[in-house]
Amino acid sequence: MDIKTLSPQVSVSPQITVADVAKVAEAGFRAIICNRPDGEGADQPNFDEIEAAANVAGLQIAYVPVTAGMVTDDDVAAFASALAELPRPVLAYCRTGTRSATLWSFHEADKRPMPDILAATKAAGYDMNGVARRIANGGKTPTDTGDAHFEVVIVGAGAAGISVAASLKARDRDLSVAVIDPADVHYYQPGWTMVGGGIFTPEQTAKTMGSLIPKGVHWIKSAVAAFEPQANAVILDGCRVVKYDRLVVCPGLKLDWAGVEGLEETLGRNGVTSNYRYDLAPYTWELVRQMTSGRAIFTQPAMPIKCAGAPQKAMYLSGDAWHRRGVLDGIDIQFMNAGGVLFGVKDYVPALEKYVEKYDATLNFFHTLRAVDGAAKTATFDVAKPNEDATSVTVEFDMIHVCPPQTAPDFIRVSPLADAAGWVDVDQATLRHKEFENIWSLGDVMNAPNAKTAAAARKQAPTVADNIMADINGYSATAQYDGYGSCPLTVERGKIVLAEFGYGGVLKPSFPSFLLDGTKPSRAAWFLKETMLPPIYWKAMLRGKEWLAKPEKVNVAAE
Asked: What pTM value is reported for the model?
C-alpha cells in the first residue's frame, strides 16, 4: 500500500487489496473512494469485495469509477459529491492513483491556486502539468480557448523582459512579440537601496508599465498559470491560451516573506523594515533618521538572492547616516548573514571590511533569520556553523532590516521548465533551455550561476535576442553570456565600491582602472550609480539601446 497525501483531508494510492482496508483504517482514514471500474484488470478485487472489507473496518466508501484517460466533467462532479458526503480524511484509489489525483486537482481548481495544486500532486509523484489548461478552467473541460499566437512570447515585464523585447524589436521591427505581465507599475528596483538611504524618493523608482512596453509589442495584462512546452503554449489565469514559436521566460523571483515566522505581520512597523519592497524602503530611512541609540540588525538569507550586496548596502548607508549625525557610538550594528563570507568575490572584501570597522559593525556568519516578534522587538536566528552543533539565538533589536528568503515563483517551480531546485534550467552561455530548444530564460529566474542583478539582465537581454534571431534564421547560437553582474556597493553617501564580475568571480570591469578602480571606494562610482545608471536604465536598457552591453560572439555555423 503506497499512500500519497495531497491535502490534510484527501490522499490517493494505487489499487488496494482487501487486506489493505484494515490498514487504511489504522492509518486514520474514515472513508474510501474507488475510482477504478470493476473488471479493468484480471487480478483486481472488485468494488463489492472492498466495500465489504470497509464495512467490517468501520469505513464509509463510495464508488466513482473513471475510465482511464477519460476524466469527464461528470466524473469530477461525482467525485465532488462523494467528498461532500463522506467523512474526512478520505483515501481515493485507482490502478496507479493518477485518476484519483486528477479528480482531486480538478475538484480543487476553483478553491486553491494552480501552483499549489501542481506542487501537491508533484510531491505525491503525479505530474498534472498536462492538464494544467483544464485546472485553469476551473476543472472543467475547455471548449473555447480563444488562442492567440505570436512568434515570440515573453513571460515577465521586469528589467529582463522589457529589455529583451526592445532588443528583439531593434533587430526586427516586424517580429510578432507579446509580453505577458499583470502588473500596472514597473519598478527600478536598484533604486530602493537609495530610497532607504534618503537619496532617492520612491517616485523616482516607478513608472507605469504601459509607458515602457516597446512600440509594436503586444502587452497581455494577465498572470501565467502554467506552461505546456510540448504544445508551445502558455496558459493564463482563466484558461486563456497563448501559443508561441519561441518563448522567453523572465518573471523574476519570489520574495518569500512568509518564510520567516511572524515577519509579514510586523513589516512596516515595530522597527521592522526592508529595502526589498517599494512601500517599505521609505520606512527604512525614517527609522535611520529617528534612531539615536540602540541595536540595529541587518539580515541576509541563504543564496541565491536578488542583488547579494543589497543587505549590506542598507547597513553601510545607515551607518554612514549615524556617523554623520554623531550618534554612531550609541548604536550597536549587527550583520546577520546566513553565509560564511562578507561578499562572494574576494577582491572586494578588503575595502568592505574597512567600512565594517568604521561603523563598528559585528559580523555574525551562518545566522539564518527564522522568526521575528515585532511587538517584543526580538529576532530568532538558526545558527549552523561548520563542525558545530546547530543552535538558535534570540536577539533584541530597536531596528531590523530584513532581506527575505527568495525562491523561483510558484508557477515556475512546479513547471516542466524547472530544475530540481525550482529555477528555469538553461545553458549558462546561450541561456537556452536545456530540454526545450525554442525556450530561453534570463534575469533572476534562471539557474545560471551568476549574480541576480539588473546589470546582469542588461547583458543577458542582447545575448538572448541575438540567439533567438539566429534561431529564426536557421543558425545555431551566435552570442554567449559570460556571467557578468554588477553590484554597486554603497559604502557611504558619496562613495561606492563598484563590484563587477562574471562566472567564477572573475573581475569584469567596464572601465580602465585609471578611470575607476572597482575594488576601492570612489566618488566616480557614486556618480555612476546616482546620476547615470537611472537614465541608462529607463532610456537605454528598456529601449533596446545596448550601451556597454554588446554580447560576446561565438562561431556561427549554419544548421
From this structure: 0.87
